[in-house]
Amino acid sequence: MSNFKAYIIILHYDKDTSNHIMGERLKKALLEGNITPRDYAHIIDRHLDNAGNPQLYHSIPFFMLKPLTEEEREIVNYNRESIGLKKLNEIVVIKRGKNLIVKHK
Quick check: 80 and 57 in contact, CB under 8 A? Predict the structure, then answer.
């Protein structure tokens, strides 16, 4: 199975909304370079969001448009940098039709 297929399956594994089943394995995969920081953040954030919890990395494009307080932005940027993602002010979200595209400045 390709990495992309595995990513999609894990991303949509909604039984693990608190990341208690796959969380440690995903973190290990991130640290060993077997999953990209973007994919890791997207999986964790989607599961948290589906459970009604705030996202750690603010990685889902739709939510990148949501305004954050300065304190929330600092926390999100710290979390993003801790796994190798760029700060929020270093990316831009572009809307193309129904799609949102994340670009780096």
Answer: yes
d(C-alpha 80, C-alpha 88), whole Å: 8
Residue 25, SS3 per DSSP: helix
Q: Which residues contact 70 (CB under 8 A, 6 or more apart)?
A: none
> What span, in angstroms and rounded, lies between the C-alpha atoms of 82 and 30?
11
What's the pTM value of the predicted model, to 2 decimals? 0.79
Q: What is the dihedral of CA 28, 93, 52, 48, to 10 degrees?
A: 0
Tens-digit pLDDT profile for residues 6-33: 777 777 777 766 677 777 888 998 999 9
DSSP for 70-87, please give it. HHHHHHHHHHHHHHTPPP
